Amino acid sequence: MKKDQQRLKFLEPAVRRVFCAVLDAHPEIVDRLDDYAASRIRIDVRDAPFCMVMQVSKREIGVYRRDAKVKSDARIGGSFMTLLKLAEGGGDGDSLFFSRDIEISGDTEAVVALRNALDDSDMNIVRESLAAFGVLGLPLRICYRVFQDMRPLVAGMFAP
Amino acid sequence: MTKQQGRKTPELVCPAGTPSALRVAVDAGADVVYCGFRDETNARNFPGLNFSRAEMAEATEYAHKRKAQVYVTVNTFPQAGKTDLWRKAVDDAVGCGADALIVADMGLASYAAKTHPDTRLHLSVQASASNPDAIKYYCETFNVKRVVLPRVLSVTEITALNDEIPCETEVFVFGGLCVMAEGRCLLSSYATGKSPNMNGVCSPAGDVRYEQGKDGSMDSKLGVFTINRFAESETTGYPTICKGRFKCGGNTGYIFEEPSSLDALSMMPDLLQSGVAAFKIEGRQRGRAYTEAVVKAFRKALSDYARGWPVKTDALIALAEGGQLTEGAYKKTWR
Ligand code: SF4
User: Fold this and answer.
1) What's the whole-model pTM score?
2) Are strands B251-254 and B261-263 parallel, antiparallel or unpaired?
3) CA of B201, closest CA in chain A: separation in Å?
4) For a pLDDT cut of 70, what percent of chain B falls above it?
5) One domain for residues B229 and B280
6) Closest CB to A32 among B48, B230, B321
7) What confidence score (pLDDT) does residue A139 get?
8) pLDDT at B107 over 90
């Protein structure tokens, strides 16, 4: 499959908007990343049909089909909620790695730098999304809250 | 009664790799937070971690306003021709308002003692001082007020040591285990050319690779060595050689130690009796979620113990390396 066919362009404007809003709200992320801001990092969301590849120094983020072959320096994989927790500092990266909730490959330094930069940033994806979309961010917030409230219920339904 | 037994509760000394983690530690009940500058002068020189000078000054102000203290680690060994970097770190730490300096190198201890005689000097675990003669030497020569003990002593040995030395002792109560006599391990240098003592990092991330197998397994590699292969169902550990799994004598297994974290919650009464002045939590490289959970657990344990309530001992298993906790050398049954 050609690279362009692997790209989910219709998702990119919204994702890029949130990505840039996060970087604008937290310039300390770029500062902490230092040279690693130039690394291309692939985020594999295990329970979603897509992955993302971002390059902080260029403020670029691409959205691709889950199994797309895209050039990257490093890769982090995990479920949506785990990655969200990691990004917002709600989960300890080492513990999530020990328990295999996240997996990494490629340039370990770049991943460690990103993890540390995010952990320091006090980022809140909902707050940043609201900032990115203005009033249009409200539905996002509602979806996120509903998803969080429903999570234990759904997990309970599938418990052994 | 020894000098330490006069204290009611030991200081809770907590790690912070970032300003955000420092605020979390202070708010969770740390008496002291220890941290370092963003360079090779401290033993947690990881990418994206540590404090700029401005961040250190702000962090110290934040802690002091909330009646907490900040100890600054300058605990690697200055390299020939580059000693200015380490001396500047000492000067800047004092300038930022540090309540104590944690050093390992004798030359740097001498510099700090002479240049900043009013700043408390603590001896880092990296100095590996674990007998009365060595510790007395540091106290008498550099006016060291506290020594951080290597994680190789039993509680009985710590109690005996406390009776023989003229300074306070600080012991690790939770976190990663460096199983060798600290400051003396050459495994990382052998595999990567970089060591905790000289470069501030054991098994540097730049030399680590993780490879995922199609069967769900994961290989961890350090330099040119494959140091472990984890099956899909196994928990993992840090990519340090001491926690590697090797073929040896016809068997495959952990020849140094299994991946596990130190947890001395169950030993708290004995450690309190031993006369230590401070409990130290390892983990400046960990996230603020770890910092918050561990600081809260130990703050609660200390307060429960003071009230005569039972201490909850299994609170932190989710944070453990390899999903395992150990009392390490505190319950030493080997020699
Ligand atoms: S290899 Fe293990 S024992 Fe040696 S310095 Fe690293 S963590 Fe410590």
Assistant:
1) 0.91
2) unpaired
3) 12
4) 96
5) no
6) B48
7) 66
8) yes
The preferred substitution site among B182, B185, B198 for testing ligand 1, maximizing ligand atoms within 8 Å of CB, is: B185
Confidence class of residue B333 from pLDDT cuts 50, 70 and 90? low
The whole domain housing B308 covers 11-177+261-331
Considering only the beta carbons, identify the residue of A85, A98, A104 that sits closest to B321: A98
CA of A15 to the centre of ligand 1 (A): 41
Instruction: Please give the ipTM for the structure prediction.
Output: 0.91
Size of interface A-B (CB pairs under 8 A): 105
Say if B184 is an interface residue toward chain A (CB within 8 Å).
no
Is the minimum CB–CB distance between B215 and chain A shorter than 8 Å?
Answer: no
Closest chain A CA to residue B290:
A92
Q: Which residues in chain A are contacts of B204 at CB distance < 8 A?
A: 109
Asked if B76 and B104 count as a contact pair (C-beta separation under 8 A), the reply is yes
What 8-state DSSP symbol labels residue A47?
A: T
Mean pLDDT across B75-93: 96
Ligand 1 binding residues, C-beta < 6 A: B 178-180, 185, 187-188, 196, 202, 240-242
CA closest to A121 among chain B residues: B20
Say if residue B2's pLDDT is above 90: no
Number of domains in chain A: 2
- The partner residues of B226 in beta bridges, in order of sequence, read B221
pLDDT reported for residue A157: 45
Instruction: Tell me, yes or no, whether B58 lies in a domain.
Output: yes
Let me know if residue A128 belongs to a domain: no
Contacts of B259 in chain A (CB under 8 A): 98
DSSP lists the bridge partners of residue B141 as none
CA distance A33 to B47: 8
- A82 and A9 share one domain: yes
Instruction: State whether B19 and B83 are in the same domain.
Output: yes
- Cβ of B48 and A97 within 8 Å? no
Cα distances (Å, whole numbers) of residue B33 to A55, A108, B28, B65, B74: 33, 27, 11, 13, 14
Q: A-chain residues within 8 Å CB-CB of B212?
A: 103, 105
Q: Cα torsion at B151, B243, B175, B232 (round to 10°)?
A: -160
Provide the CATH number for the domain around residue B55.
3.20.20.60
Residue A155: count other Cβ atoms within 10 Å of its Cβ: 9
Of B295, B305, B10, B282, nearest in space to B162 by CA: B10
Q: Any chain B CB within 8 A of the CB of A114?
A: yes
Same domain, B247 and B267: no
Q: How far is CA B115 from CA A53, B74, B126, in A?
A: 50, 15, 22
